[in-house]
Structures are given as structure tokens and as C-alpha cells.
């Protein structure tokens, strides 16, 4: 397996795969909060479908991460028994749902990121990641269709819907900087042909997002300096609450099964 | 009066696989045509039910009048010869 793959430290690959998997897992868990509370029955199913796709991606990625690590941790151990400091998702994913418009803004920003990332990762030298990306890219393409459709509808809708999504955009925009802030780990993955260059992903993301925002008649916020390091395990206060809910059952009843 | 708070109703038709017709599967509410397609995908193709979706605004459907059922459909009842029951259908023909 992975004959062409240059030698890299298992621990580094482990952490990188968790970055991808945790982003999907945390976002999927967040979206799940809408179930039973969506503005329409149809939307309940729509949002739940995105959540299920994301959790499916997380399962594949966490399973792979566990194999890379080689200490016998499976997807469940990694999802349910890791502390928040060992979660490596960018903190945009853990930001609260807010109103439906705010959820949609967060979704568009992350969908476009995952789409540009996975499209390029389909020719990763890591065969496993290439396969996961090939499967995920189809799902994510639909996610962006769904979320951008809503963003255009709301942005180009009534005065109130426009104002709400514009302010959600201002609120969440600063967190997007972290998605593209390349650190040593990102650089190592790009150098070894495992992951695409984040600068390249960013350029494509900007283009895509600008086109969607223009259609939604929304203003592109200006980039501001950031100090978010979810990718290194430093999270906002929100992740703790998400994990408390998500991990409760396995913590209270270890090894519980259906 | 049309209630603006309620999204319009669409009828959904799904083609199960290539070569078959689109079949009516149900209806849903959506604000516009694109949302209707998205909702149809999410509601009616979750279990791989289809390869193609049509949505039609329910108001565009013109239906026969139930009170005319007798005059519309009764006359066909005694014309059994219209059923091509005397043909042998080859085993290879699957979707006739």
C-alpha cells in the first residue's frame, strides 16, 4: 500500500488526517442540532442529509487516522474519547448555528473549502486519502449546491434576510483565515504530495466564494488578522459543549453498543 | 388568497433507472424550482430510488373532475378486446 509515498512520520500524518476528519465530524454534529428545529420539514431532511454525509466522511478519516497511529484506536475511540485539546478542526466548524442564515453562511464557507481541497486531493500520493477524497467530493459538491442556493435566496431576498446573512458573514469571515493559514504540518503534507498547497486551495476558494457572494448581492468582508489555532488543538469555548453532548453516552457507559 | 408564508407545492416525479418513465412519487413545499429539486433529491432519493427528477408546480397540473368519473371511464369497461392479452411476451423483455 502507498508504495510511492515518501517516508513521513506516522504521528504527523495522524494529526493531519484528524484535521480533515474533525472538521467534518464537528460540523456534522453541529448541523445535527437542527433536526426537529428546521424552518420546514423539507429543510430538516436537507440539513440532516448534509450532517450524515459529513459524519460518513469523518468515519472514514478517523478510521484511517487510527490505523496510521497504530495504537489500536478505532473511529469510535477517536470520536468519543478524545479531549478537546486533541481535536484539530478549524474552529469555524464549531461556531454556533445561530439562525438558519448563519448556519448557511458557515456551511457555504466550509463547503467551498472542502470542495476545493478534496478536488485536489483525489490525486494525493496517499492512496487512502485519494480514495476518501474521491468519494467525498461528490457529496461536498451537492452540499455547496444546497448551501449556496440558500445563501443566494437569503442574500437576494428581503431586506431582513439580506441584513441577517450579511452580518453572519461579517461574524464568521475572520474564522476562514485559519482554514488557509499554512503551518509546518500543512507544508509537510504538501511537500510530500499528500495534500494540495493551501495557497492554491485558497485562491480557488476566493474565486468561488466571490462569485457566490456576488450572486447573493452580499459584500465580501475584509480579511482581519486572526489568532485562531483549532488546527493545533486550541479551541473556542464552544467545542467543549459540543463534545460534552456528543461524548456523553460513551463516557457514562463505556463501550456501550446498540 | 395565496398565503405568502407557505411555500408553493410541487409534484415530484422520479425516474428509477434509464429506460423507465418518470413516476409520480409525492409532493413537497419549496420556495423556488431549484429548491424543489434539492428537496426532491433529499426527500425522495435517499435510498437510491432514482437517476432523474422532475418537479412540476402543483398548480400546473390539470386534473380530471371526480364527478365525471362515470362518463370518462365507464365506457372502457366492456371493451375487453382492447387489452392485447393474446400476445406471447418473450422472456427477454423485462420492462414492458
Task: Give the mean pLDDT of chain B.
Answer: 89
Examine the secondary-structure arrangement and name the CATH architecture of chain B. Roll
Examine the secondary-structure arrangement and name the CATH architecture of chain A.
Up-down Bundle
Q: What characteristic shape of chain B results from the CA principal axes?
A: flat
- Number of separate structural domains of chain A: 1
**CATH fold field value of chain A:** Ferritin
Radius of gyration of chain A: 18 Å
What's the total helix number of chain B? 2
- Intertermini distance of chain B: 45 Å
Query: What is the CATH superfamily of chain A?
Result: Ferritin, core subunit, four-helix bundle
List the SSEs and their pairings.
The complex is a heterodimer of chains A (258) and B (96).
Chain A: H1 10-32, H2 41-69, H3 75-80, H4 100-121, H5 127-155, H6 159-180, H7 184-191, H8 198-215, H9 237-252
Chain B: E1 9-15, E2 22-29, H1 33-44, E3 52-57, H2 69-73
Antiparallel strand pairs in B: 1-2, 1-3
Any overview of this molecule?
The complex is a heterodimer of chains A (258) and B (96). Chain A has 258 residues and is mainly α. Chain A has a single domain, classed as Ferritin, CATH 1.20.1260. In chain A, 67% of the residues lie in helices and 0% in strands. Chain A contains nine helices and no strands. Chain A has helices spanning 10-32, 41-69, 75-80, 100-121, 127-155, 159-180, 184-191, 198-215, 237-252. In chain A, α2 (41-69) packs antiparallel against α5 (127-155). The relative contact order of chain A is 0.15. Chain B is α+β, with helices and mostly antiparallel strands and 96 residues long. In chain B, 18% of the residues lie in helices and 22% in strands. Chain B contains two helices and three strands. Chain B has helices at 33-44, 69-73; strands at 9-15, 22-29, 52-57. In chain B, strands 2-1-3 form a three-stranded antiparallel beta sheet, covered by helices on one side. The mean pLDDT of chain B is 89. Chains A and B meet through α2 and α5 of A and α1 of B.
Amino acid at each position: 500500500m502507498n508504495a510511492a509515498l515518501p517516508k513521513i512520520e506516522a504521528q504527523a500524518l495522524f494529526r493531519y488526517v484528524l484535521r480533515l476528519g474533525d472538521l467534518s465530524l464537528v460540523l456534522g454534529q453541529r448541523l445535527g442540532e437542527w433536526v426537529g428545529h428546521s424552518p420546514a420539514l423539507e429543510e430538516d431532511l436537507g440539513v440532516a442529509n448534509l450532517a450524515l454525509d459529513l459524519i460518513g466522511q469523518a468515519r472514514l478519516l478517523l478510521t484511517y487516522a487510527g490505523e496510521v497511529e497504530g495504537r489500536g484506536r478505532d473511529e469510535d475511540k477517536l470520536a468519543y474519547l478524545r479531549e478537546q485539546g486533541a481535536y484539530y478542526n478549524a474552529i469555524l466548524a464549531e461556531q454556533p448555528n445561530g439562525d438558519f442564515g448563519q448556519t448557511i453562511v458557515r456551511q457555504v464557507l466550509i463547503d467551498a473549502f472542502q470542495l476545493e481541497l478534496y478536488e485536489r486531493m483525489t490525486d494525493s500520493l496517499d492512496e487512502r486519502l485519494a480514495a476518501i477524497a474521491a468519494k467525498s467530493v461528490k457529496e461536498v459538491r451537492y452540499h455547496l449546491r444546497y448551501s449556496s442556493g440558500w445563501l443566494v435566496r437569503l442574500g437576494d431576498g428581503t431586506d431582513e434576510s439580506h441584513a441577517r446573512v450579511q452580518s453572519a458573514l461579517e461574524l464568521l469571515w475572520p474564522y476562514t483565515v485559519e482554514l488557509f493559514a499554512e503551518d509546518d504540518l500543512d507544508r509537510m503534507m504538501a511537500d510530500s504530495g499528500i495534500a494540495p498547497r493551501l495557497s492554491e486551495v485558497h485562491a480557488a476558494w476566493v474565486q468561488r466564494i466571490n462569485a457566490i457572494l456576488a450572486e447573493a448581492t452580499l459584500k465580501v468582508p475584509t480579511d482581519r488578522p486572526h489568532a485562531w489555532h483549532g488546527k493545533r488543538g486550541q479551541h473556542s469555548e464552544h467545542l467543549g459543549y459540543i463534545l460534552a453532548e456528543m461524548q456523553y453516552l460513551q463516557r457514562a457507559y463505556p463501550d456501550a453498543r446498540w | 388568497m395565496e398565503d405568502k408564508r407557505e411555500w408553493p407545492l410541487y409534484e415530484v416525479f422520479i425516474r428509477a433507472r434509464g429506460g423507465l418513465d418518470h413516476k409520480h412519487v409525492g409532493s413537497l413545499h419549496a420556495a423556488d424550482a431549484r429548491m424543489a429539486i434539492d428537496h426532491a433529491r433529499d426527500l425522495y432519493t435517499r435510498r437510491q430510488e432514482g437517476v432523474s427528477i422532475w418537479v412540476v408546480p402543483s398548480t400546473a397540473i390539470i386534473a380530471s373532475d371526480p364527478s365525471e368519473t362515470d362518463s370518462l371511464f365507464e365506457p372502457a369497461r366492456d371493451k375487453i378486446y382492447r387489452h392485447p392479452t393474446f400476445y406471447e411476451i418473450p422472456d427477454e423483455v423485462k420492462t414492458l
